[in-house]
Amino acid sequence: MAKTALQFQHNGRDVAIFVDGGTNLLVALRELIGDMTPKFGCGQGGCGACSVLIDGELHLSCLTLAETVAGRSVETLDGIKDGPNLHPLQRAFADNFAAQCGYCTPGMLMAAKALLDRNPQPSRAEVVEAISGNICRCTGYEPIINAVLSAASGGRARA
Amino acid sequence: MTRHRGRGIASVNYPIGMNLGGDPSQALVHSNPSGKFTVALSSIDLGQGMKSVTRQICAETLGVPVEDVYVDTADSDTGPHCMGSFASRGTHRVGNAVMAAAREARGVMMEAAAEELEVNAADLETDGRGNIHVKGAPHRSISTKDVAIAAQFKQGKTISGRGIFLVPLSDVDPETGEMSPATCYAHACLVAEVEVDDETGEVDMVRMDSAYELGRALNPRLVEQQLVGGAWMGVSHALYETPEPYYPEPVHGPRDFVEYLMPGPGDICPHDIAVLERPAPDGPFGAKGPGEMCANPVLPAVANAIFNAVGVRIDDLPITPEKVLRAIKAQGGARPQPRR
């Protein structure tokens, strides 16, 4: 099958790749662009490990056809830190012991970022709701919820 | 429809590691050209924090800053033998091996320092900040980096140590069946409070209160993260997860996270934890290990709480709404038990 040319913004940088029809965004990001931060968990939208932002909105990259992001802006965990400085959410995750094996962490961070971008001072219930599509095996969620709340109340270094 | 509250308790006596076969772990410690130290292990850190804890144990035993120790692990091509990361054995077994290796390396380091300072090694002590000095005379001092350089370039010594931890084999007495399967036990007690819906059979966690006795907590924040997260793995086993819902019939088993259920962030409840530190005589700095024990008491406590709430005794995990409803129906309705 002929490949399709695809252009979009990846963490603020223009990228152009050729994709097979039916390629999902997760595969395009990991295998064609080399951004390994979105994780393959279940491949069917059940775990949230592959979460990315498309034009600022939270999406499951494993269920998104790569061709649908043409001309749009895709943000992954790889793009949220500022040079060597961690994003306030990443700092808060480290300070609150919100990661153990770390496999869910990229998806959790993107879900949390999507929340704080639209609601900088969320309630605990709003944080729970925001990460409810993401499964974590290790932490029992409590440290993750606390990390998001502390990043919110600690003020945000970057919009 | 009525929602019934119930409370259940469970206590566990938890053996650390598995002693059949000796349950050995090995560690190698050596100084690098920079005067810092590398610990080589084959043990695996899955996120529980074993790298941090073995780093602390090595630094404390050597008498050097924790920043000066690097732990290289999870590569069986370069590391010595290890049974693995399971049975809550990491801190205790691997920690003991690291301690033995670091003790041997410290002996070489102190001998090398003694040669440089022209004193007896027995008169030297470490300050934990990267220096070795004569006891009572801190100005007669040499940095661990300079000791490493002297050992490598002048004295021709490798500052290194080997460590193994192996539990003495315990055979079964053919007459009595008696044996000592473990050398070290941790303990836990957990009270679970649940709410059971007698129309849907659903069980909601209301709160948990627990106490864990795990020897000395070498890294209290890592212990806490294990206890907080592990309890939810216990809840997950008690109420949600199974690959064989109709065991031994494999059909209709779960195929994905829509069918293989796990608690989400909306299912959690408050959990109050008390950590009791009673150092283990054979543990590294008195440590046992939280490990699997984080999850174990939750299962019987939840089963007991369900009995307390609606009077049904379910001994087949996970305790799904279907099982609860069938049991309530079989006994002709919910029978809340007295709360103590």
TrEMBL record, chain B:
It comes from the Bacteria. GO terms for molecular function: oxidoreductase activity. SUPFAM superfamilies: Molybdenum cofactor-binding domain. Transmembrane segments: none annotated. It holds the Pfam family MoCoBD_2. InterPro entries: AldOxase/xan_DH_MoCoBD2, AldOxase/xan_DH_Mopterin-bd_sf, N-heterocyclic_Hydroxylase. Residues 3-267 form the Aldehyde oxidase/xanthine dehydrogenase second molybdopterin binding domain. This is Molybdopterin-dependent oxidoreductase.
